[in-house]
Fold each of these.
Amino acid sequence: MEGRGYPRRVSRYEADGPALLVLLLAGVLFWVIRRLWTGSRIRRLLLPPVSIRTLGGSSTAVAGRILPIVEIVAPVSGRRCVAYQDVVESHEASRLGDRIFNNPYHLDQGTWRKMSGNVIGAFVVADDSGKALVWPAGASLIIDESWSRREDRLALRDSCDGRRESEKIIRSGEAAYIRGTPHTFDALMARLRQDCGVMPGELLQALLNQGDLKNLPCFFADGNPFVVANQTFEKLSSDLIPDVFEG
């Protein structure tokens, strides 16, 4: 009827928009603070690298180029590498996201929660003076590349929940920075006997059979600060630290 006013119906998007914006801004602020705190913590662990030839038994740092022991295949991307970081997450749908979008294909809604994570592989780092062996499992791992991901979309379609596997790889020929305590090859073998994790069989055989590796200083997780990065010391010292995986 003319002249009679009716209240305008508020859409779901208008009603939930402010709450969604607040959540988004809070998430961005948390990410920035976490990245700055992580970068500050990792930088406190960094030491200027020394020549591999001069290594003793104390905590130190080396830098050089990555050489393969054997190359392995990363499961998500199928790329060949010397080591890879693998993270498995489960997806839990957000009630707010369901109410606004009502669409289980929106993978950005809800929360991805880490179920498991591993660092697989080992490699040699070489500078002009010598070589050292690195087993990066258990390190504060900094890999400067984007994630490769594989998602279980069938589960996401059916229930708004699901699973995804993500990986980053370390390639032969890349720069490397290692902060840790060098040990003997025998100490590395003793550590592997305690926990070899999911080390590929061909890599384990190479460690046992390649005689030239037995004379190299070895870096592995021993409870002391241990940082492994596929970047130079100068780049780590000057740039914003990327995602750090605590193995």
Amino acid sequence: MKKLFIVVVFLFLFSLLDSAKAFSVKPSELLITIDPGLKKTVSLQIVNPEKFDVNFSGKIYGVKQKNNGSPQFSVGYSVAEAWVKPKQSQILVPAGQSKNFDFTVDIPQSAQSGTYYLGLAIFKTGVNTSTVGLVGQVVSIFNLQVSGQAFDNISIDKWKLDENKTVGKEWFFDLNLSNKGNMEEQMTGNLLIKNWSGDNIYKENIYLGNRFLPNSVRYLKPQASLKDNIFWPGIYLAVVEIKYGLSGQTILATEHVWYWPSWMWPVTGFFVLGLLILVIFLVKIKRGLKKNRD
């Protein structure tokens, strides 16, 4: 009897889980190229695996890139949000079937050329989409490319030693980048340390994240573990070198770093002490010579 009860409970729970299958949306990413002043329709396929009919609605989000390169969706991030609208307020997708949800893309004549990223969200009608996060929504990334002249412009806004984290031969830097162009970019970077004579004593590739979206910023924390690469105290030059674009454009930034190893403190102490003893010795000799003359 007890076993029968457990089986009945298990089948009941399984039926609840089976009836609450999540809907899906295809494709997960779209890309279109369109001229200013033109209209176009894009569609997302909604698959309803549930055992009853469901109404679905759509919403448009702007996309902002997080520091790690992943997308963050919210309203008000992009001017292109006003160019895309759901073609219908809602559609009914029958149980176990799929149906297309259409969005109208209307590019104004004055739109600037470039790449715009949006999020096309699908959700069950009635879900509160004003809450934080995207709970209950499935979002496809929409890569909207407006035709025209393309230009790339990556800039280094900050390159500076982080004195709070830097200890000994472990050097940390603050690197801030911005993409002021209208194209997404792939970047590669190197961190170089040069000595007083301009020779490279350290070089390492630095990870700059995945594709860099237009009108985005990125804050990075490159590290140089010098270990056996550096010994003598002095002023060293830290160089960050970044390449991007199809033509391999290169931008540089430099930072002078004063290195004073811990072993220099006792050496300096002994030097000062020796200098002091030498001065005292010379003073005594001078006084002795003066006394002998008198």
